[in-house]
Amino acid sequence: MTVEERERRSVVRVVPPVRPRKLAKVPFVELADGRLQGVVSSGSDIARVYVSSIAARTHGYSCGTNNNRPCGGLHGAPCKHLRALVDEAVLQYGLDRVARYLRVDVGEGEDLMSRLDGSPEPAPAAVVFSRFLRHLAYLELPDTTEPIDELHWFPAMGAVR
């Protein structure tokens, strides 16, 4: 396999969002590590963000600030940050994909949040926040079509069997 073929095969296909979304309220959302998780901006303090997550299967939820303080809105039910996270995930990935990932059945016209029946559950907020900061660092890189060294360690498709 030539270098050119390897480079062409190592490019990851980026799936565009289902619908455009504004990043100011929820700048980071992902389906990873068995959770819907992300970073939600505070409505009252520009320097504060919340790391929020909902576990697949159990629907256990967690929300706390970037400096590890629990969200004041968690009173036995999901807070507004979790609702914002779910809404943005649906915009990013589509209702079917998010519901499938969280392992919940959502009927036509039903609200995904109303189908979740979890309770507060600790989650590794530091890992999510660290990944968010790492993604922000990529915004500072100059535009290029060349592979980014630290992301280019994955084997080319079909190279390892």
Can you tag this structure with a few keywords?
161 residues; alpha+beta; 4-stranded antiparallel sheet; 4 helices; 27% helix; 15% strand; globular
- Sheet-strand content, in percent, reads 5-15%
The residue-averaged pLDDT reads: 83
| SSE series | HEEEEHHH
Helix tally equals 4
Residue share in helix: 25-40%
* Main β sheet profile: 4 strands, antiparallel
Radius of gyration: 18 Å
Could you characterize the architecture of this molecule?
The chain is of the alpha+beta class and 161 residues long. The chain is built from four helices and four strands. It has helices at 3-9, 80-93, 95-102, 125-139; strands at 28-32, 35-41, 49-55, 61-65. The chain has a four-stranded antiparallel β-sheet, sandwiched between helices. It is globular.
Task: Explain the layout of strands and helices.
Blueprint: H1 3-9, E1 28-32, E2 35-41, E3 49-55, E4 61-65, H2 80-93, H3 95-102, H4 125-139
Antiparallel strand pairs: 1-2, 2-3, 3-4
Short description:
27% of the residues lie in helices and 15% in strands. The chain has 161 residues and is of the alpha+beta class.
